[in-house]
Structures are given as structure tokens and as C-alpha cells.
Amino acid sequence: MDNPFLVEVTRGQLVESRHRGSISVVDADGATVLSIGDVDRRVFPRSAVKALQALPLLERGIADKFDLTDEEIALACASHSGESEHVRVAGTMLAKAGRDVGCLECGTHWPMGESASRALAAEGKTPNALHNNCSGKHAGFICLACGTGNDPKGYVGADHPVQRMVRETLEDVTGACHSMEKSGTDGCSIPTYAIRLPSLAFGFAKFGTGAGLSGEARAAAERIRKAVAAHPFMVAGTGRFDTKLMEILRERAFVKVGAEGIYCATFPELGYGIALKVDDGHVRAAEAMMAGLVLRFLPLNDQERAAVEALAQPVFKNWNGIEVGGIRLTPALLG
Amino acid sequence: MDNPFLVEVTRGQLVESRHRGSISVVDADGATVLSIGDVDRRVFPRSAVKALQALPLLERGIADKFDLTDEEIALACASHSGESEHVRVAGTMLAKAGRDVGCLECGTHWPMGESASRALAAEGKTPNALHNNCSGKHAGFICLACGTGNDPKGYVGADHPVQRMVRETLEDVTGACHSMEKSGTDGCSIPTYAIRLPSLAFGFAKFGTGAGLSGEARAAAERIRKAVAAHPFMVAGTGRFDTKLMEILRERAFVKVGAEGIYCATFPELGYGIALKVDDGHVRAAEAMMAGLVLRFLPLNDQERAAVEALAQPVFKNWNGIEVGGIRLTPALLG
Fold this sequence. Notes:
Two copies of one chain form a homodimer.
Chain A: E1 5-11, E2 14-27, E3 32-36, H1 50-53, H2 55-59, H3 62-65, H4 70-76, H5 84-96, H6 114-122, H7 135-147, H8 161-174, E4 183-185, E5 191-193, H9 197-209, H10 215-230, H11 232-235, H12 241-249, E6 254-258, E7 262-267, E8 272-278, H13 283-297, H14 302-312, E9 315-317, E10 323-329, H15 331-334
Antiparallel strand pairs in A: 1-2, 1-10, 2-3, 2-8, 4-5, 6-7, 7-8, 9-10
Helix pairs in contact in A: 4-5, 4-7, 4-10, 5-7, 9-10, 12-14, 13-14
């Protein structure tokens, strides 16, 4: 089955590039609200499920035990830009568990944010593992290990108690079996388990509404959603799509990007969960599609609509500020 | 017509993302050697035709008049990384025409190369127009203007004598009409004219062989090819695909990337010109496809084959050096 064209990139009067993709929107009963393209092909959810991976930290009372703040909880769900505030908060999370940067097993890279990367270089510094875009999630894993009496060493391994807790939570929430033979290794070295989009969307409908979750899981999901809505900067960073969209919509939408054009979201007031994948993995298309689904489903006032429209169908300007083209969504997506 | 899958991006045992595209390979008579996908859809050649855009500078004797070196001629065809050597050479080109950075109309951006960008920041500096990846091409345009007695001011405009000379050359070499209604504005503000892939490939077959070109154009094309083969660092930069491939193959292949997944090339010993476009604009797929066409067509020794194979089907390692997946080409491309 060929997935349809959902995003067009224009230049002058022509379409220069095109993106295909698939989308699943389901409600908290698991009923299909919208299905576009081949949603049965398994995809790696990558960083789009970080909020679900953070649930055990809250459910098991570890966040309270270590007195984690809302900013720290938001950072546990982040693919952050490595700005100084992100790095600082990742450090305080580790300190609360009595650990430091030396425990992180995510690897080191220059900050994802280009400005942050140059700022670090301008200080004559080089990055450490706290600058890794996943350091907040990993700091959360280390808190989870320490808080449950486990040695964090090797916490990225599929057989470590941390990853077993995380996998059980992912299976509980999505209802999908997470088997090793359908797994891959993520950029930060933890396992990522291939899953069908409707299962992923169902998980996020439950995450957004609490329906079908235990009391602890429901409270954990609500706390995560409120923490991220209060601190959208922490989950991404300056100028980033997730930060900008949640600054507009706050608790009305939880959205999270993952590598290779995957996106998960929930619109709690509608009870919807959303999962989408761009065939070619391009994040610009995934972002436009997610903003387009906000336009399609959420009631918005004029100001909100204009702000989301600018994210869904941005205009491209060149280095001299001349308008050269833009992104537009196809009727298949906008409905 | 749906273009076929030509590139797969794997993780673990699964295909995570896929790229479709179209390819045209023609010989210097214009006969089709290979045609994949919808090659009749017009594409913007963007920076992939910089070598053709540099022809008037050589044909009209301006390069000799200003005593341009091979490094400078190579930089005139470049989408460079903004490393200090690129910036220096762009400056000397302008100085030879009696001009300076203030004449450049390409706009300013931080160096395309991340290391170069951080190195500039570490020096406490900010970029100027010499760091723009197109500064060499623009310095060439300014040389062309000054050398032909024209005021360079406004040289990016479609009606300026420089762009008229460039457009006439593009029409001569490709045999395709370059009309304003099918034009767009490039990132560096010059016009880019939509064209069919076979016309583009034909132009590069002529560029690679000299067949069908005037004596001046043939000599100009040969000088450009030799200059780039001698200085492949100048056309891209440290670690970049075009630099690495031409360091392996030297005069046996001229290749040039453009934005949005376009690529042009010529293999002079076979008399072939090549043009390809990735539907979604992803450069990783365009590079893999170009390396795949080298494997398909050019006779290579074991060492060359291994080096090109590593560019065609690279392995991905994560931040901890763990192998997580890679790129592989489909039989439709490898033949």
C-alpha cells in the first residue's frame, strides 16, 4: 500500500519536494477516529514515547521520593537542545539521586541546538553527556534505578530492571507486545520496540485521559502532562516546534517528536491519541503534519489558529529575507 | 507515476524510513542509458549546476584575465562548508576583481560545516557573506561582471548581464529553455530554473566530454573538471560526500550536490551525464544514490570499490559507537 502525499514543499510556483506518511488517530476506547495510509507497518517510536517511558518514575513514587520539580519531570520527557538551562536541570536530577554525569550512559554529542552548540564553543568548552538531547530521560532512568534500590550501572540494557519496568509500562499502556526480535537500538543506546501506529495512538489516548490506566498510572500521566504544559521549554528548546506548539496550547495538547519523522500526541479534551510517521523520516514534514492535525481537530480562537497555521504551513525565506517558497499540507491531511 | 523506492534506512532488522526518487543517465548524444521513475517532472537544479554556471567565467577569458587559480575555480563551483580556507579563497577572488565582501549579495549564514561554525564562534567572531556556502560562486559572478565591464551591483537579478550570460550558457549546454515562469529563487537569491532530469543529464554529458560544445566551452569545462579534481576540498569540505568521492575518483567523476535532494554528475570516460532527484529532498538519500550509480557504472579496483561502498551503504553508529542500522540501496538502483 502506497502512503499518500501529505506535505508539499514549494519553491516559486512549483512543488519541489513531497512527503508521504501515515497517521492514526484513536480515542480512549481504541476506536479509530482517523486512519491514513498503511498504519499496520511497524515503526520505531524512538523519542516520541519518552513521556510513557517516564511513567514508572512517577507511578512508583520515585519522583516524590527525590522531590523532583515539574521542570525536572518535563526534562525527563525531553529531546532538549542542550541549552544551559537543560544541562543545569539534568545535573540537579542526578544530584538528587546522589549521582553525577559519570553515571549517564547516553553518550556525548554537541548540543542539538545550533546556537547552544556555538555558545558552548565560544566558552572554550566541549560537551559532556549532560548535553546529550536525551540526558533528562537518562537522569530519570538513574533516579528510577536508585529509587527502587537497583544499581544504575548498565541501565540502558534491555535486561536491566529499569528497562524491564519501562517495557512493562509501554506494554500496559499501548496494549502491544514489545518483543526483542522487533527491537532496535536507539541513538542513546536504550532499546526501541517497533509498534503499529494505532497501538501507539491508543497508548497516548490513555495517557491523555487516564482511561484504562491504574490509579497510579493515571496520576502519573496527569502530573507529566501538567509539568510539560507548565514548562514546554524543557522538552525541546528555543525556537523548537514542540516548545512553540505547547506554549500556544498548554494542557490542550501534549506533543512529542521522535527521530525519523515519528510523532505522538494527545488532545485530552477530545480524548484522542495520535501517532504519525513520515515515510522518509523528515522532521519538517512530521511537524507540519502534527500542526495540521491540531488545525483539523482542536477548536481554536483566531489568534491560536494563526499561530498554529504558521507552524503547519510555514513560509521559507532565504538568507536575504526574500520569500522563496514554503510548506503546504494536502487535502488528505487537512480533511 | 509513482517513483520507486531506491534507498532504505534500516534500524535493527527493520526498514525505518524509505526514499523514492528518479534518475536519468544519458550519453553525449542524448541517448538514454538509464531512466528510473518520472523523469519528466521538472525539478529545480539548485546548486547542482554551479559548474555550468561557472562556464562563462572561463569561456570569456575572465579567469585568465584575473589570473584565477585552480583552487579559486573549484571554489566557484562549490557549496562549501565555510572553513577558513574556503573563506580565504573567496576573499582572494574578490580582491583580484578589485572588490571585497561588501559586494557579495548571497546573504550571510553561519558556516554550513558544524565544526567550522563552532570554530568561528570559539574565536568570538560572527559570520559574514564570505562564510555563505555559495560565496565562491558569487565571487565568480562578481569577477564575471567586472571582467566584462559590467557593474556587479544587482548581479543576482535575472535581468543583470551576469545572470543573462549564465542563463544563456545553461540553455546552450542543456538544450532546455529556461523561462521565468518556471523559475524560483535560490537560497542565495539568484534564479533557479526548473528543468527535466534528462536535459540536465545531457548537459552534464556534454560538460564531461566536450561533445557538442564550442571550443571555448569545451576548454572551459575541461579546466573546471581538472580544477575540481585537483582540489575536491574546495567544492565541499572536511568529511563531505562530494569531497570524499572525488578524492577517491579524481577526474573519473565530477559530482555536485544541490539542495532538496538533487544531484548532477558526469563520468567522462563513459561519456555519461547523470541527474537525479530524491522525492522528499533528503540529501542522505541523494548521496547514497550517487555513490550507487558509481558502483553500477564505473569500473573500480577493490580499494576504490570498498571506499565507494562505504559512501553508498554507510553503517550508522550511535553516540556510544554501537552499530544501530544503516543505509542500503534497492535492486532498482544497483541494477
